[in-house]
Amino acid sequence: MQTERKYWFPAKRYGWGWGFPSTWQGWVVFAAFVGLLVADPFIFPPRREIGLFLA
Prior knowledge:
Elements: H1 24-43, H2 50-54
């Protein structure tokens, strides 16, 4: 059994939040997030005011 905890996203040295992924599980979560962010306008297209959406 592994005694040392391996965090998917380590704490940043400066500022708030987390740093870039440090394990493969973190990279999978990060890739899924970016993929959903890119796919969102295709899955739920804006109905009007496309200019405001793109801005």
